[in-house]
Hints:
It is a single chain. By secondary structure, the chain is an alpha/beta fold. It has three domains: 10-47, no CATH class; 60-157 and 308-331, Rossmann fold (3-Layer(aba) Sandwich), CATH 3.40.50.2300; 159-186 and 195-306, Response regulator (Rossmann fold, 3-Layer(aba) Sandwich), CATH 3.40.50.2300. The protein has helices spanning 10-17, 21-33, 69-72, 76-88, 100-103, 108-113, 127-136, 159-172, 205-220, 242-250, 262-274, 308-324; strands at residues 37-40, 44-47, 60-65, 94-99, 118-122, 140-143, 153-157, 178-182, 187-189, 199-201, 224-229, 256-261, 284-290, 303-306, 332-336, 338-341. It has a six-stranded parallel β-sheet with strand order 4-3-5-6-7-15. Helix 8 (159-172) packs parallel to helix 9. It starts with 9 loop residues before the first helix and ends in a 14-residue tail after the last strand. Residues 190-194 have low confidence and may be disordered.
Amino acid sequence: MPCGAPLPSYHDLATELGVAMMTAKRGIDALVAEGVVRRQKGQGCFVNKELSRAPRELEHVGVIYPSSRESMYALPYVIEIMRGIAQKAPPQADTHLFSLRQDGLVRAAQLGEWKISGVILLEMGNDDYLRAFAQWGTPGVVVDYCSQDAPLDYVACDNRAAARQMVTHLAALGHRRVVYVAAPSPRVVARPDNEEIPLMVRESSDTRERRDESVNALRERDMLADVINISQDDQWTGCLPDEMYRQICSGNGPTAVLTESNYAVSLLLDDFARHGLRVPADVSVCALASDSDTSSDGRRLTGCRFDFVGMGCKAIDLLSARCLEPVLDKPCVHRIGFKFMEGEMTKRVGANQGA
Length: 355
């Protein structure tokens, strides 16, 4: 919008964006604080300065991450994404990490202060923030999250293909009673004391896609026995309802348990051990997505090994291109592939192998 152009009312803006009116007001308040928008008493809000969308070189890369900087290097798949970013970033480019948990909500003025050329928003599961970011004029690529609301580039896992591949594999092994175990992912990111409202990072799009695509594929083949959604209050430690443990160990329950990740498999096996139980020999356990080739007990996993390093590389390619091209007018999703890995933890129904 050109300088001096009037902005819609809070009500009209909230309706257009599909958000609460208070959310729209907070967004305008932030733009007013940064000098992008000015208020005129009795007349409304107007564009105070037009955000620059001129082509730029990718010299200073910002990475915005919801949790702490330390946690970035505790998760293998995040480490791989960061490795890809480091490998593909131009030699002259430097990288600045912003942690929402430690630094608070990153705003346009801060990006300008650090002379950020483009931003990678890693696991940024908040559509309100992404919509606001898209208006700032700073090139941005969202990694490991998808949204249909903000006109940005998104790099995400091909969860639909992975779910179809896994269900086809289980069907070929004779499984007809499969339980899908879904872990929670919504979390609130702590903000500094002077911030009034915490930033909610909503359900991961990966969690949602893997659950929905797996359940749909299992239902199409009449293989779905149950869906277990571990609630956020459980702070998922792998704990299934007691009844499900009994069913799995009874011989009359599910013949396979499908989880969303290798991390979930490890938690599940650990929880069986805490109950003094072992997964029966003819029950398969597998992970839809994996950033490791083995489980916590050293056995080879069956899962889809996604190219997370490639995800980081793709993000830099897109960000470099976006620095030189006009911004998007609608979301553009780029899916990364995987390698299907068959391990020791899935087996043919009726096979008498060690658990």
